[in-house]
Amino acid sequence: MLNHIRIRNFAIIDHLDLEFRNGLTALTGETGAGKSILLGALGLLLGDRADSDSVRNGASKAEISAEFDISNLQNVQQWLTEKELEADHDCLLRRRLSSDGRSRAFINGSPVPLQDMRELGEMLVDIHGQHEHQSLMKSQTQRQLLDDYASHKTGLEKLATIYKQWKQTSTEYKQLRDASNDRNDRIDLLRYQVQELDDLSLTEGEYAILNEEHVRLANADKLVETCQSALQALYESDDSNIYSQLAHQASEIENISETDHKLSPANDLLNEAMVQIEESASLLRDYLSEMDSDPERFNELDQRMNSILDLARKHRVPPEKLHEIHEQLTKELNNLDHADENLSTLEKEAEQLKNSYLEQASHLSQSRQKAAKTLNQKISDAMQTLGMSGGRFEININTDAAKPFTAYGLDNIEFTVSANQGQPCKPLAKVASGGELARISLAIQMITATQGRIPTLIFDEVDSGVGGGIAEIVGQHLRKLGESRQAFCVTHLPQVASQAHHHMQVSKHSENGNTTTRINELDSKQRIEEVSRMLGGINITKQTIAHAKEMLDNVQEISA
Q1: Which of 34, 265, 363, 385 is least crowded, fewest Cβ atoms below 10 Å from its Cβ?
Q2: Are residues 114 and 218 in the same domain?
Q3: What does the pLDDT read at residue 560?
Q4: Are residues 480 and 541 in the same domain?
Q5: Is residue 443 within 8 Å of 393, Cβ to Cβ?
Q6: CATH of the domain at 6
Q7: What is the DSSP secondary-structure string of 252-308?
């Protein structure tokens, strides 16, 4: 859900900080007060393209940020993880606009392409009444909504598993079939290549071991010379070796340490150094005794490594990868040698999986048809109460067994609607009226509220063209929707605004030649005043105030 939004220097908003809660929030205010500006700011956070005119006059940049609670949104957390963006309980979206037309987008503090912000925004907020952000316009969302309503999760998982197995088996079959067309030539080449590698008998990790020994033998003379020189200097030369000098100094220090015991630690360290030198000398002797330049072994290594490098160059891989190439070519040769047998097996497996897929897809399609009939009736009934008498909602499900298989079945699902009696149903995306579209969306969301994947819904123009009792019913539906989702409604009707759990007023103020928009959450008294203004316009009477209070009190009684 949307927790907070912060706007700086956007249009006629100089600074604005708003906290939001669960439930239905009404946004009201006089025409031109700036309600559309707030939606425009939110739209930029959802990935709308920026306009330099959006920056407040006199400012160099505008900045908009919003914080969302995603603790219960696993799909959002997974998306953030896949994008290597920080995924915690909260998600911060930020958009910065410059007066020169440039803009930058950030998610959890990291700069991102605008497309990423748009993808994430579509999982967080749905704006109904404007086609840009309405997920219901998308066929994928329509399918998901129908499947969620019909509780198809288990069936879809089963179908997706079968689809994945079928696709993998079909791919293997096609590759083997294609390879069989020129199998004899390929087999001859593979046999030659595998035989070369068999003769080489390269074991895993062998090249690294050989290379280490080769380097050591190539530098044998230098290694021996350096070690002998060190051994002489440390221990084996006459009285000038380091060990003898240390022993002499240690003896001298030991003698005078009887006079001053503070010298004892120095003496101990000298003795330890003598022990270390003795051990080093011993190790050097052992190394020299084992060290052998062995020109014959060096030549043997040289030939072996050259053979490995020649084959590695031939296969265009590092020598360390030659062992893997050997395994791959051997496997391919074995498959081709048994191609006819393997082709037959794969063909049978693919056919069995195809039949299983078609059977499961058919079950899914039948269940979708059944669920669609129920949804059609419920949503159509809801439309009658929302000022669309005679309106009709239909989900078209066309099954095409000839279409390419997908993880979701073979159905093409499309939401269609007729807002007026006698008119044919058209795709939801082609409904022209913003008010009708918003109310149709409300009807759909109202019936499928518990299946909704998007936590925050915004209804704009939902009350366009309605009034009286229908407006009150619209408000009641919105309030009910707000009990399971976070909902916002931009409205001019008191019947709708009075149903909200929370009420925010948008107002415009002019001072020192500057115009600014402000948004304030109303308390009980302020709310009565705002509903009175919506009822009575300029002249607000005692009767108008009493009517407003009665409307708000009635909502509280119904909710109690």
Answers
A1: 265
A2: no
A3: 40
A4: no
A5: yes
A6: 3.40.50.300
A7: HHHHHHTT-GGGHHHHHHHHHHHHHHHHHHHHHHHHHHH----HHHHHHHHHHHHHH
